Amino acid sequence: MSSRRKRGAAGANDGGALAFKKKLKSDDEILAKVAKLSEAEKKKPKESVTLQDLNLPNVSKEVVDLGAPQVISEIEKTMLSVAASILNGHGFGYTIPTRTSANQLYVPQLDRIVLKDKSSFRQYGNMSTVRKTAITTRILQLIHQLCNKGIHVTKRDLFYTDVKLFQEQGQSDTILDDVSCMLGCTRSSLNVVGSEKGVVVGRLIFVEDGDVIDCTKMGVGGKAIPPNIDKVTGFQSDAKFILLVEKDAAFMRLAEDRFYNRFPCVIITAKGQPDVATRLFLKKMKSELKIPVLGLVDSDPYGLKILSVYMSGSKNMSYDSSNLTTPDIKWLGVRPSDLDRFKIPEQCRLPMTDADMKTGKEMLEEDFIKKDPRWHAELELMVKKKEKAEIQALSSFGFQYLTEVYLPMKLQEGDWI
Amino acid sequence: MSSRRKRGAAGANDGGALAFKKKLKSDDEILAKVAKLSEAEKKKPKESVTLQDLNLPNVSKEVVDLGAPQVISEIEKTMLSVAASILNGHGFGYTIPTRTSANQLYVPQLDRIVLKDKSSFRQYGNMSTVRKTAITTRILQLIHQLCNKGIHVTKRDLFYTDVKLFQEQGQSDTILDDVSCMLGCTRSSLNVVGSEKGVVVGRLIFVEDGDVIDCTKMGVGGKAIPPNIDKVTGFQSDAKFILLVEKDAAFMRLAEDRFYNRFPCVIITAKGQPDVATRLFLKKMKSELKIPVLGLVDSDPYGLKILSVYMSGSKNMSYDSSNLTTPDIKWLGVRPSDLDRFKIPEQCRLPMTDADMKTGKEMLEEDFIKKDPRWHAELELMVKKKEKAEIQALSSFGFQYLTEVYLPMKLQEGDWI
After folding, report:
1. Looking at this predicted complex, what is its ipTM?
2. Is A160 an active-site residue?
3. Is B53 within the bounds of a domain?
4. Could you tell me what reaction this enzyme catalyses (chains A, B) (predicted)?
5. Are B75 and B15 members of one domain?
6. Is CB count within 10 Å lower at the N or C end of chain A?
7. Which domain holds residue A233?
């Protein structure tokens, strides 16, 4: 706090922006703070708290990543139990875990949402569930086929294989999630993937479907993150941290300036709202490399929302949360307090709209904000000042201010929360 | 036509889909038709008709790609002529080419839109143009700086460098286009780029900012196309054609099945509406490799619109059209006549909405459709039947029908128009 005041005073005459530049130390000294964070990360126990350790009432299990042979075996087991149910006189049906919010639980120790153990019996011999039962059976058959062939398709492809039965994509999508919960595996284990949006660049080497990908040799455009995470293996890296960027404009600046060569890191973005593939990739990369993730997002409620999706998951995928979420992301910037500290000009700040204010106020009550008083204080400041700013607002001090001053300064001071 | 009828009859009992599979020849034979098309492509004269050759009245010049030193020199020349104008008593101002549709011309021989030679004098000493003149000067200064530093930024970055002057991004964007026309160079020569969306995979090697990128070794996710095309050089390929795909779901199917290893090709997609970076990349790749481009889009007006943007450009970028457009794309599929021919089930076809019908009817009048009677006939069929279908509708015959039957059959029969 005292250093912040000092800085503010020092920069009063020259706009603050240049004052920071003068205070930058050598790159090695700048890296020292991050190196400490990385070391702490590597020393963390291999698996911290698991759902089993907590032994929560009414919470049974989480879905896990399964390989294709295991998924096939789970489907076959399911069909055998259906046959048994028929022979026992209970009829043709499936026991499906309930995915409504009443059956969801936020677990603070894990910092994610999990499903409780309520379920329902979906039976064929009932007018209200006969269609859903038929669709469930068809989806199980299609997944069995996909896993047998070892190929991946999108939800849309799946829908088109039997439009007559599914009628609309919403129906096959919903039941796909049911099937994933029922089999106890992640949606990506079912070989049904979303579209890819993310890109990655920097000090990272991995193997993708047999090809060795060196992300330091991916030019300025980076490597597209594949939709099928199970084809990604063998992460290797000498990076000290992962820089998670909200937008592609900032990604482009960092890639073109080869920021990762000056400060060894991996730079990743989903270009806005994170897709499943990018979230899986980040999660896998972080847990294998054991290095910290620093988040660079716009200073607005939407930027925080994006961090929250990476960290806690989205509600409708809650059953899949442990595989999709990266709980301990540090909020590097652009934070509401940065606006004054870095003296972002008034005209580069935008007034928050009514919708922004509503989202901001709602988020103040959310668990992932409340659990860290520093996060809560930043969001309170945003809502109080009714101001937001994009990462690009830093361009007002020069196109390369982001890579040459702002980020090095942040790293030097260990200014993440 | 006769072969189409025969096929329809042959497939009457088994849904048609399997009938095609039986008719597939060996891969070498399938490739024969494409090989002919490729040879024809390579024999084309190096530069076909240019704007100069046509010697059109009221059409002076097109913008061209310029290197950074040339852009710098053009800016300096412009400022010298401004100084001369002041000394001559004509005041401070710029001569700006008019970009309105009244000053645009579709040139059938080139199959693209070009600007005619109307221009206006934008002067500082006039209440209605003083702001625009100031913004133009500031943009020229910023571009000069970008070209000097050799870095690339987005339009949004540019806007944020002087929000006080630009007020809103629309204003700096518009004048950026004016500056591009005035200097006679493409927007990408100004080092202002759009965001990247496209990905590429297949039999292609190129150099990106010094890194050698081998697109056969890009796993299933492919290589992200960089926003700054001037960093891309040294295209090498043994591909027989470029497969331009509208959507990422189809791209994923082709990449995962490594379609390019069976039929040597390069596969590229912009994931929907094409962005400038993907269009520049396609144009550059095609003109250096001299191989045909086959388009695979949805059978709906939007799919055709996407082809038209690749081929003829969009109206508001018309001045930049020669650098952005790839005129001779072959329409491979999914064409309206394919729906019956491949017996796409009724439930996988979608009724066209009112907006679809309106767009479809308008497109029937457009030059790029009218110039080829076969294209016109296909669109007429679509509008007449009021039916559309997505590429994914082919999944109704199996997830890999696209790569194993549909595309090989299309290639075997040379069924593109």
Report:
1. 0.82
2. yes
3. no
4. ATP-dependent breakage, passage and rejoining of double-stranded DNA
5. no
6. N
7. 2-43+194-412
